């Protein structure tokens, strides 16, 4: 069922501008605002990037992730975003 819903969202880009996604972005941005490790990168930019990467990973999982959990797909995608010098 989750895969079907994600495919529906992918087919209708307007659905991506959904209040819960914006709430998640705001929460991440607020959480990151107190951290200094992000340097000059604005917390709202980091938040939107994390939400987008997470959603993209879930979309990939819905379409191609047989044998892999949604969480594993999301972890793999976010792990790929980590800078190489922090690995």
Counting helices, strands and paired strands, the structural category is mainly alpha
Note the run of SSEs as H and E: HHHH
Question: Over all CA atoms, what is the radius of gyration?
Answer: 14 Å
For this entry, what is the oligomeric state of its chains? single chain
Whole-Å distance between the termini? Answer: 35 Å
Largest sheet: none
Query: With helices defined by DSSP (H or I, 4 residues minimum), what is the helix count?
Result: 4
- As a percent range, the share of helical residues equals 55-70%
Low-confidence stretches: none
Shape: globular
Number of strands: 0
Question: Overall pLDDT, averaged?
Answer: 79
Beta strand %: under 5%
Entry summary:
This protein is mainly alpha-helical.
Explain the overall architecture.
The chain has 87 residues and is mostly helical. It has helices at residues 2-11, 19-33, 43-64, 70-81. The chain is globular. It starts with a helix and ends in a 6-residue tail after the last helix. The model has no long low-confidence stretch (mean pLDDT 79).
Sum up the structure in keywords.
87 residues, mainly alpha, 4 helices, globular
SSE blueprint:
Blueprint: H1 2-11, H2 19-33, H3 43-64, H4 70-81
Helix pairs in contact: 1-3, 2-3, 3-4
């Amino acid at each position: 069922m989750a895969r079907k819903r994600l495919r529906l969202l992918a087919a209708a880009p307007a659905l991506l501008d959904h209040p819960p996604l914006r709430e998640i972005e705001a929460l991440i941005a607020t959480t990151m605002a107190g951290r200094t490790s992000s340097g000059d990168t604005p917390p709202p930019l980091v938040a939107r990037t994390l939400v987008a990467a997470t959603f993209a990973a879930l979309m990939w999982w819905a379409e191609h992730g047989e044998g892999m959990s949604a969480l594993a797909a999301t972890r793999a995608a976010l792990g790929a975003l980590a800078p190489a010098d922090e690995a």
